[in-house]
Amino acid sequence: MILYRSMFRVFLAIALCVSTTTVYSEDGYQLWLRYNKLTDAATINQYKAYTQGIVLEKESPTLLLARQELQLALQGLLQTKVTFSNTFQGGGIIIGTPSSSGIIASLALSDKLKATGDEGFVIVQTRVKNKPCIVISANKDIGVLYGTFHFIRLLQTQQRIENIAITSAPAIKHRILNHWDNLDRTVERGYAGFSLWDWHRLPGYIDQRYIDYARANASIGINGAVLTNVNANAQILTEPYLKKVAALANVFRPYGIKVYLTARFSAPVEIGGLSTADPLDANVKAWWKKKIDEIYTYIPDFGGFTVKANSEGQPGPQNYNRNHADGANMLAEALAPHNGIVMWRAFVYSNEVPEDRAKQAYNEFKPLDGSFAKNVLVQVKNGPIDFQPREPFHPLFGAMPKTPLMMEFQLTQEYLGFATHLVYLAPLFKECLDADTYAKGKGSTVAHVVDGSLENHSLTGIAGVANIGNDRNWTGHPFAQANWYALGRLAWNPSLSSETVAEEWIRATFTNNEKSVHTLKDMMLASREVTVQYMTPLGLHHIMGWNHHYGPGPWIKDKPRADWTSVYYHQADENGIGFNRTATGSKALLQYTPEVQKIYSSLENCPEEYLLWYHHVPWNYKMKSGRTLWDELCHRYYQGADSVRRMQQQWSTLKGIVDEERFQQVSSLISIQHQEAIWWRNACVLYFQTFSKKDIPSGLEKPDQSLSYYQSLEFPFAPGIKPKW
Ligand code: BDP
User: Fold this and answer.
1) How many angstroms separate the CA atoms of 550 and 640, rounded?
2) Is residue 65 over pLDDT 90?
3) By the 8 A CB rule, do 409 and 464 touch?
4) Which atom of ligand 1 is nearest to the CA of 408?
5) What one-character DSSP code corresponds to residue 467?
6) Dist CA 494 CA 490 (whole Å)
7) 414 lines ligand 1 (CB under 6 A)
């Protein structure tokens, strides 16, 4: 019933689109699953040759979803009626597994299928009873669903399908969204409305959103959702909430998505009535074992826990003089009989140690390599500080060979202009994944650490901190959908290029008009670098507004901890600017392999995008451009802000091609982005000028406000702030 409701909406939307020749309105709800009529006649004709019908011999919940999706897509994209049947009538698309389909079992696909594991798929064009047809098959039902979505993507992006022969399997096993969602439906660092999870009305009320969410994830291969904030609330582990979680798990299951929760380490005390949460205490162990066994009575395929412990005030094993492995292994032991996993986060930095924050996770975790249980992944943020516009890769990648390390990226734009700025993050993800750790010589990329190939780990994972809320278009900014999309696609295949992913997304989300695809791709591919320029050029980092991280705040100082201030990170003084992390400074660079050290250690050779990350550099230092550091810094800020204006012009060419509603929405957002880029530029240049004591280079327009004006701005209600419990 519920599914039909959702299909009806999509049909309605499609009907509306074709019933009018003028540009129609869209609100972005359909994401990249729009299935609007294709425009290229030759392509449509080619596709029609294969759309006489869909054959699904034996149904299952997941296979039914695949069939319905395919029918929906074909009918929308080709505007023809597509029937289905459980017998082969000659031609069409056959979907299924060797065990659900006699036809598929009779085809010589077993060699190909062997290589695709539990989730991969094979798509081939072949002949059955001498009739041409397309076969989408897999070892398991979920692979058929993934294959179906892949096939649909080929159609949406107008690829040729004759002689198609695709074998695909995910490179990474656990492809997960981390929702930082609180039980009151606020979302920490969330900028797209409130949480999707309507805890109050669960389990009785199943919101259509849950189904549409699962469908969207399945379409890009995401197979896990951590439902709750890493700053966890133990209540989620109580019986009433577990029943609610179970209701969500039931919705997600046919889409191949497992649910996970965050485990608050002190739960045995808070909801269990124990006096300690010491992981080596027998009662604590017994409590968790019982709790975990109980969870599996509600959710037989529960995925496991994500844990933030001894970080930013969260309780953890160190409260009892135990280490991270003691804590992780205690939970892992109780989860193991159920095949559950622990994703133990390495985002830790001590309250006491006055050590460069960039070094602390490595210092704490590296000595523990080899001491984690088999079902533990250590989840490491992409960089050593905290999801900055640009950071080097985290030094733990390549440094813990005996431990499977899971990647944590942030989709929600906490430090990247919230859901107001257009920032396509695939280039950021790729920069990290493609970085070479040199852990086992050249080619030891972060991607090979994460996909397990470098050290032969079969337990692998990648997580994205979700940017999804209950905004009608899911992510607040229509383009932020691309970051959700990119996470899924790159988790499946980290070797895809940012460009390929962008192009797929653009064609499915906006248009197949070649010129516009080109313009949109250009905007998206440039956008991350543009943001770096107007926020944190040349390796600057963490100079955002205090706590909410909205807007510039390079002047932030005198807070409870030095590493919660901006002055700690930029270290500007009258001699220069930047954080010396080389051998003569904090020595953070020494945590990397000698090959990596060599790239960054000398001031002369350090790539300029990381200059101020690794070096404290004199204001008069001669840059590659021939300018002084001060002049170069100013130029970068100005260039960044100017580039947003260019983006604005590019977007304006889409008028009449993109539907009016999304056109207007993006136009307004880019115009705010432009104003905010100027705000960033002016505030930072004026502030750093108090140290450099130099003029803004001639030819650059002077800021129209004073530094004290920018410093006086306050945003007590900026969205996404941490809850105060
Ligand atoms: C920072 C966020 C904070 C998170 C923390 C984390 O500011 O809200 O709780 O990371 O990842 O980026 O645990």
Assistant:
1) 17
2) yes
3) yes
4) 11
5) -
6) 4
7) yes
Q: Are 39 and 243 in contact (CB under 8 A)?
A: no
Q: Is the pLDDT of residue 14 over 70?
A: no
Q: What's the pLDDT at 560?
A: 84
**Average pLDDT of the residues in 322-345:** 98
pLDDT at 352 (0 to 100): 72
What pLDDT, on the 0 to 100 scale, is given for residue 51? 83
Q: Residue 428: is its pLDDT beyond 60?
A: yes
How far, in Å, from the CA of 192 to the mean position of ligand 1? 17
- Sequence length of the chain is 725
Q: Domain segments of the chain: what residues?
A: 28-168, 174-334+356-509, 533-579+616-712
Query: Is 263 in a helix, a strand, or coil?
Result: coil
Beta pairing partners, 377 = 343
Backbone angles phi, psi at 675, to 5 degrees: -60, -40
Q: Which overall architecture, per CATH, does domain 174-334+356-509 show? A: Alpha-Beta Barrel (3.20)
pTM over 0.85: yes
The helix/strand/coil state of 243 is: helix
Structure-token pair, residue 589: 């660079």
Catalytic, 503? Answer no
CA dist., res. 655 & res. 308, Å (int): 46
Q: Please state which CATH number belongs to domain 28-168.
A: 3.30.379.10
Three-state DSSP class for 42? helix
Active site residue 386: yes
DSSP code string of 123-189:
EEEEEETTEEEEEEE-SSHHHHHHHHHHHHHHHHTT---TT-EEEE--SSSEEEEE--B-TTS-BTT
Determine if ligand 1 sits within 6 Å of the CB of residue 386: yes
Residue range 533-579+616-712, CATH number: 3.90.1330.10
Mean pLDDT of 679-706: 98
Fold match, 28-168 / 174-334+356-509: no
User: SS3 sequence, 183-214?
Assistant: CCCCECCCCCCCCCCCCCCCCCCCCHHHHHHH
The finding on whether 347 has its CB within 6 A of some atom of ligand 1 is yes
Report the pLDDT value the prediction gives residue 724, as an integer from 0 to 100. 60
Give the lowest-confidence range in 14-28, 57-71, 87-101. 14-28
Angle in degrees, CA 520, 522, 528, rounded to 5: 105
Distance CA 121, CA 167 (A): 6
Q: Distance between CA 526 and CA 84 in Å, rounded?
A: 44
**Residue 119, ligand 1, Cβ within 6 A:** no
Q: Which residue's CA is the nearest one to ligand 1's atom 8?
A: 722
